Amino acid sequence: MQSRTLRIRIFGPLQDLFGVEALELPDPGPTTVAQLWALLEARYPDLASWRPLCRMAVGGRCAHAETPVTADDELALLPPVSGG
User: Fold this and answer.
1) Which of 9, 34, 51, 82 is the most exposed place for a label (fewest CB within 10 A)?
2) CA 1 – CA 8 distance, rounded (Å)
3) What secondary structure does DSSP assign to 2-65, as a single string?
4) Distance CA 32, CA 62 (A)
């Protein structure tokens, strides 16, 4: 059986931080957005300073900390945006 992965799309200046347009991580099993943030910060400590400014989207919608995450979900890290 092939192991599952979480695929997280990365946008804007966060691509510079990660050096990629998408991350693939081993699926930790049942998890939440908050737990996923903690996992990402453990692997990428510089992300901690971005956390208050960014949102995570699950299935195309901004998610709350307690939102469940599975390997089947479309995930994205969204930096702050501005414009008019």
Assistant:
1) 82
2) 22
3) PPPEEEEEE-TTHHHHHSSSEEEEE--SSEEHHHHHHHHHHH-GGGGGTTTT-EEEETTEE--T
4) 13
Q: What is the pLDDT of residues 16-53, one digit of tens each?
A: 989 999 999 999 889 999 999 999 999 999 999 999 99
pLDDT digits (tens, 9 = 90+) for 61-74: 999 999 999 999 99
Contacts of 80 (CB under 8 A, 6+ apart): 53, 54
Cα distances (Å, whole numbers) of residue 81 to 13, 28, 30, 55: 10, 30, 30, 11
| Rounded alpha-carbon distances, angstroms, from residue 28 to 6, 32, 71, 80 | 8, 10, 9, 27
pTM above 0.85, yes or no: yes
The residue type of 72 is D
Rounded CA gap, 20 and 13, in Å?
11
